[in-house]
Amino acid sequence: MKHFSELSPSAERIVDAAEELIRNVGYNGFSFENIAQMVGVKKPSIHHHFATKVELGVVMVQRYSHRFRQALLHIEGTMSKAPDRLKAYAELFDSTYRQNHAMCVCGMLSAESTSLAELINAEVERFFQINLAWLTEVITQGLTDGSLHSNQTADQLAEIMLALLEGAMVVGRGLKFGRGPRKTVEVFLSTI
Amino acid sequence: MKHFSELSPSAERIVDAAEELIRNVGYNGFSFENIAQMVGVKKPSIHHHFATKVELGVVMVQRYSHRFRQALLHIEGTMSKAPDRLKAYAELFDSTYRQNHAMCVCGMLSAESTSLAELINAEVERFFQINLAWLTEVITQGLTDGSLHSNQTADQLAEIMLALLEGAMVVGRGLKFGRGPRKTVEVFLSTI
DNA sequence: GTCTATACTTGGATAGAC
DNA sequence: GTCTATCCAAGTATAGAC
Lengths: 192, 192
Hints:
The structure is a homodimer.
Chain A: H1 9-25, H2 32-39, H3 43-49, H4 53-78, H5 82-97, H6 105-112, H7 118-145, H8 154-175, H9 181-189
The structure holds a DNA duplex.
């Protein structure tokens, strides 16, 4: 399996296209032909970089997860208070959603998971675990220093936050309007 | 377009299969061949009942939406207090989720919406609008009679409830465990 | 790294017999 | 209402030339 840090410029553009397609139409909704047209090459050129569609999917999620962790680190490095960190976290989802109501990559793959290869599902699971762990830590900090108040535990609140963000994207797509993930979470945060 | 109230026994079983498949692998994840095997007929027999896959999808969502409204009526007829009604509502989603972490039909279709026919998307949108309207009414009642307390408006809380339920199913599928929609919503309700 | 050509499979859909 | 046979398009993937 190729590693996302060793991608050639062409391979990078292929992964870019795959990510955009998965966000919009899902793994089962795109073909190598779609990617070929977006990148400007022919179908077999994709196979030169990624042997199978599953491998392309795995590398794409791994890169996505890695970039997401970089974003989490950036939040930790630029904000100190739990409420600010949580709002910045919600903004990560919202910036994706604002692009034509695109989904979170792992939210989409999670919905499709029953029809996907186990290699892909494992990466998605890891993404959610990383996110829950990070949220739990931030919320614990907020409950401890008094910047957040709740009668619930940090890990329960973390799961609510994550479900709320993913769900707001799903519902927002179906409604064609809807508040979107950031505003939905802000309303929730103002209730606790 | 056929109406779901006029389905023959065979057509009914085809819609049953389509619903189960969409809940588990999504619209783009199943084929007429899958349905044929589940029902125990050959592919062309499906076309005798539904001219196209889109028509099958539309009829399936219409039947699903109708049954969901029946369930909402049942809740209204058997429970009077807003908190009880909301918990019973969450249980509707949870009973689906407990079957192999299956998704809500419209949650799945909403995630896939960018790749679906407009006829299907319109039914999904209608489903969400019905749900939001019902939730808003129940929550308004609860806020008025004092059985619910919040500094937020009923329609904001309704959107949170719906997003939370759909999102808990998505995240729960990806994590392979996770609390599921009912417990997630109960935690939320105990915070307001 | 990209191409043409092609193999093989599956998917949605139709024709026409029973 | 269901079947066999078939069409055509699209999907993943491979072989081999440039």
